[in-house]
């Protein structure tokens, strides 16, 4: 991309950010009346805050929600994984601001408890529970606790994830942990909790935090194997076995030292492959869940929060955690008449996989 191309891209991004800033100030009912925005290219650490509750003067200002579009209540249970800091923390915070009962989970019990305590200090309905999505026993224990205490849940936000590369680094030293947490951890949560999503006319919602780096056909980080790429883009070819085999093949090549020559995404390769698998699994599960009867519908989507200033990016992003969380909360709280499933979002609009 030449100098003029970069300048045009920068101008488009600035215009889009201004539009998003405007949308955040509008009532949810005004924003959502025409449904989610669609891209023309689309195919298918807790901050110190005032203890005076809401609104928060310099951070997140919750948009007014028209009573006619508010489908949730203080009894609506939302689980947010990996929520002791960063985007997960802000999603938990913003959902709680809107009046939901939020279960904040984290692998580190001390940090998770401190995050939940801080939000409760603002008068929010937040509870902490320790959870490591990479460990089956931890997920099963958490599921048992949810079942006993709440009888199920209404919203699940799969945010827990790891990344060991920043800047120009592209090490695959921790690839196995990245895939185990980001993909298989997310998959495990969905498999176990599908049967625990509470029946409701508003539809249960699952949201997977992902990344544009995991797009099959991204311009700068695509899957180089054309045969595999075509299989991944076709719904009739997409299967759980194909996704799992892709992840297993990548890890096998990492162990053999041959991954760099096999046309995997070239930026943050292990993280990109893990998010590619999350995106694919989101599409697959949307198809599997599509035929559930009314009152038992489950809507599943994924979104990219952007390059956010968090510990995961080494604080090198161009958006705040509050801004990064915005689209996720927007999707989770879409009014019933605007619900969609199997889609990929960024900046409050649909983008291509």
Automatic annotation (TrEMBL):
Record region (Disordered): 1-51
InterPro entries for the chain: CBR1-like, NAD(P)-bd_dom_sf, SDR_fam
GO cellular component: membrane
Domain of life: Eukaryota
Ranges that cross the membrane: none
Keyword set, alphabetical order: NADP, Oxidoreductase
Keyword set includes Oxidoreductase: yes
Pfam families: adh_short (PF00106)
GO molecular function: oxidoreductase activity, acting on the CH-OH group of donors, NAD or NADP as acceptor
Biased composition (Basic and acidic residues): 1-22
Keyword Hydrolase: no
Family statement drawn from the similarity comment of this UniProt entry: Belongs to the short-chain dehydrogenases/reductases (SDR) family.
Identification of the protein by name: Short chain dehydrogenase
Organism of origin: Musa troglodytarum (fe'i banana)
